[in-house]
């Protein structure tokens, strides 16, 4: 009997790694499947996120909507937030995204708030192809949502 032997599995966490109020950090050679990471400040004047490098990380299906559960909220995807104060689009944070792969995100695969950032040699494939989050302003928007004063993007591929 198929109904008694089939196990139903579902995603139970969004963020496998939450980085809070950290500086001078390198994450390298990690694989994420069905999860992603976030780096967030506590908005305390002495604590914030800065000088983070994501190097050779693989994000496969890093975020997914919960439409099947009747939740229309925007999907939670990879986010790096270098702001020191709420309400600001950018004022701090220097980030490097080097040689990473973002595949199959159901929404914007990467969002960051920074004073300066560099995206180099990253691969973005089959992200937000359904545009299903459009009702909340997140679908069919972009591959990278950047709030930064000084960005450089070199040798990135979008498929």
Structural class category? mainly beta
Mean pLDDT comes to 85
Largest sheet: 8 strands, parallel
Shape: globular
Portion in strands? 35-45%
Low-confidence stretches: none
Oligomer: single chain
Order of helices and strands: HEEEEEEEEEEEEE
Total DSSP helices: 1
What do these coordinates show?
By secondary structure, the protein is an all-beta fold. The chain is 3% helix and 43% strand. It has one helix at 2-5; strands at residues 15-20, 23-28, 31-33, 36-40, 50-55, 58-60, 78-81, 94-98, 101-103, 110-120, 123-125, 144-154, 157-158. Strands 1, 2, 4, 5, 7, 8, 10 and 12 form an 8-stranded parallel sheet that branches. It is globular. The protein starts with a helix and ends with a strand. The relative contact order is 0.16.
What's a concise summary of this model?
The chain is mainly β. It has one helix and 13 strands; from the N terminus they run αβββββββββββββ. Strands 1, 2, 4, 5, 7, 8, 10 and 12 form an eight-stranded parallel beta sheet that branches.
What are the key terms here?
single chain; 159 residues; mainly beta; five-stranded parallel β-sheet; 43% strand; globular
Write the layout of secondary structure elements.
Blueprint: H1 2-5, E1 15-20, E2 23-28, E3 31-33, E4 36-40, E5 50-55, E6 58-60, E7 78-81, E8 94-98, E9 101-103, E10 110-120, E11 123-125, E12 144-154, E13 157-158
């Amino acid at each position: 009997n198929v109904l008694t032997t089939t196990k139903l599995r579902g995603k139970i966490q969004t963020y496998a790694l939450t980085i809070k109020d950290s500086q001078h950090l390198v994450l390298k050679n990690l694989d994420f499947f069905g999860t992603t990471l976030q780096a967030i400040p506590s908005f305390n004047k002495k604590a914030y996120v800065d000088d983070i490098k994501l190097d050779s990380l693989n994000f496969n299906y890093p975020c997914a909507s919960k439409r099947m559960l009747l939740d229309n909220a925007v999907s939670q995807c990879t986010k790096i937030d270098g702001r020191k104060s709420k309400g600001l689009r950018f004022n701090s944070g220097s980030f490097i995204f080097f040689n990473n792969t973002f595949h199959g995100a159901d929404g914007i695969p990467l969002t960051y708030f920074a004073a300066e950032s560099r995206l180099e040699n990253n691969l973005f494939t089959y992200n937000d192809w359904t545009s299903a989050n459009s009702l909340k302003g997140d679908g069919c928007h972009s591959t990278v949502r950047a709030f930064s004063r000084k960005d450089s993007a070199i040798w990135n591929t979008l498929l």
